[in-house]
């Protein structure tokens, strides 16, 4: 069914009826047939994972105390054609940072080179090795060996504990397909991924949600009642830490809170923004009321294309050169920062925009707006204080000529500084507004190109 019909159906149907699994079985099975790895694929992943781990064991020496495969491929929770193999090298706590970095890079590079693969160094809190061998993607990451709720030394130290917790929790449970369905559903909505560009659901968060609710449909059914600031505690947490049901957990000011079973002071859903949570709530309702495969396959792109099939407002894009070797998790927050700073200025000068967006490719950062109008009258109405607020009135008439009373307020007409949106943006790129706008280090709009009639969508 076409997604436009789905929109109409959603608003015509009333309160959600009790779920009948048979209404969804055929659609979900069709999706699973597309996304479930084949047995051959699983075997090839297992064989190569064992080989690379065996090689790492051959070349790694003290102070590596453990080598563990983590991630969705280690837990049979990956989608078809997801051949990511994540291997963590656990070092003793006493290992100094330099030794951990140097040993991790040496071991990772040597292991990948042995299989005639291509390797390179990536940087998070500390460097790690990524690589490709045939159709397998590898991350070999050094970390410190810690126990649950023990203070971490580096940000990645929890990951092996996440893996241990999930494997232990999955015993006697068959949740792999439900996890795959949730991941594919979120991918279809464009909200899968905890990177700062996506601000969506991580793979680990998906697994915890399925573990909590016992299945894909059960989760979507509960989501009907969610609101921002929803808080979720897994039942296993109460058992692991011997807590009472009324335990007072640490409070987080996030759109969704899911307590990390291995660190109760951490919110697994911290990266998820409110808009993407609300998309999940909204489209979960739509799917349950009118199930369709369309939700799982580029649904967000179809919505964007549909919305663009309309009369457009005034489009403008700033094109800013992207510095080399600056990762997306640095670029995107800075794009958001400068765009919000510009948005504040736009509102001050009465330029209303319908939407804005930012996107970066390899060479360029794009900041885009769609405005209602691009030109305003020469004058604007400035509304001052109520006439009975004497100090405020005195100050207002001192700074404004041709004042008058409108309603209960003293007002004045002022000549606009900017009546054309292009002139305002020219002052931005010429650096004339540096004292007003925050210019980030890596996304500086000075000397940017102004593209009229263009809006760059995020992909």
From TrEMBL:
Residues reported to bind ATP: 72, 75, 162, 183, 192
Class of enzymatic activity (EC top level): transferase
SUPFAM superfamilies: Nucleotidyltransferase, PAP/Archaeal CCA-adding enzyme, C-terminal domain, PAP/OAS1 substrate-binding domain
Residues that bind Mg(2+): 84, 86, 139
A biological process from GO: tRNA 3'-terminal CCA addition
Pfam families: CAA_C (PF21133), NTP_transf_2 (PF01909), tRNA_NucTransf2 (PF09249)
Gene Ontology terms for molecular function: AMPylase activity; ATP binding; CCA tRNA nucleotidyltransferase activity; CCACCA tRNA nucleotidyltransferase activity; magnesium ion binding; tRNA binding
Residue ranges of every copy of the tRNA nucleotidyltransferase substrate binding domain listed in the record: 177-297
EC number: 2.7.7.72
Keyword Coiled coil carried by entry: no
Keywords recorded for this protein, A-Z: ATP-binding, Magnesium, Metal-binding, Nucleotide-binding, Nucleotidyltransferase, RNA repair, RNA-binding, Transferase, tRNA processing
Ranges for domain CCA-adding enzyme C-terminal: 315-427
Binding site for CTP: 72, 75, 162, 183, 192
Domain (Polymerase nucleotidyl transferase): residue spans on this chain: 51-162
CDD domains in the record: NT_2-5OAS_ClassI-CCAase
Catalytic activity entry: a tRNA precursor + 2 CTP + ATP = a tRNA with a 3' CCA end + 3 diphosphate; L-tyrosyl-[protein] + ATP = O-(5'-adenylyl)-L-tyrosyl-[protein] + diphosphate; a tRNA with a 3' CCA end + 2 CTP + ATP = a tRNA with a 3' CCACCA end + 3 diphosphate; O-(5'-adenylyl)-L-tyrosyl-[protein] + ATP = O-[5'-(adenylyl-(5'->3')-adenylyl)]-L-tyrosyl-[protein] + diphosphate
Required cofactor names: Mg(2+)
Gene3D superfamilies to which the protein is assigned, alphabetical: Archaeal tRNA CCA-adding enzyme catalytic domain, Beta Polymerase, domain 2, CCA tRNA nucleotidyltransferase, domain 2, Poly(A) polymerase predicted RNA binding domain
InterPro entries recorded: CAA_C, CCA-adding_arc, CCA_tRNA_nucleotrans_2, NT_2-5OAS_ClassI-CCAase, NT_sf, NuclTrfase_I-like_C, Polymerase_NTP_transf_dom, tRNA_NucTransf2
Family indicated by similarity: Belongs to the tRNA nucleotidyltransferase/poly(A) polymerase family. Archaeal CCA-adding enzyme subfamily.
Primary role: Catalyzes the addition and repair of the essential 3'-terminal CCA sequence in tRNAs without using a nucleic acid template. Adds these three nucleotides in the order of C, C, and A to the tRNA nucleotide-73, using CTP and ATP as substrates and producing inorganic pyrophosphate. tRNA 3'-terminal CCA addition is required both for tRNA processing and repair. Also involved in tRNA surveillance by mediating tandem CCA addition to generate a CCACCA at the 3' terminus of unstable tRNAs. While stable tRNAs receive only 3'-terminal CCA, unstable tRNAs are marked with CCACCA and rapidly degraded.
Subunit structure as annotated in this protein's UniProt entry: Homodimer.
Entry protein name: CCA-adding enzyme
Organism: Methanococcus maripaludis (strain C6 / ATCC BAA-1332)
Gene this protein is translated from: cca
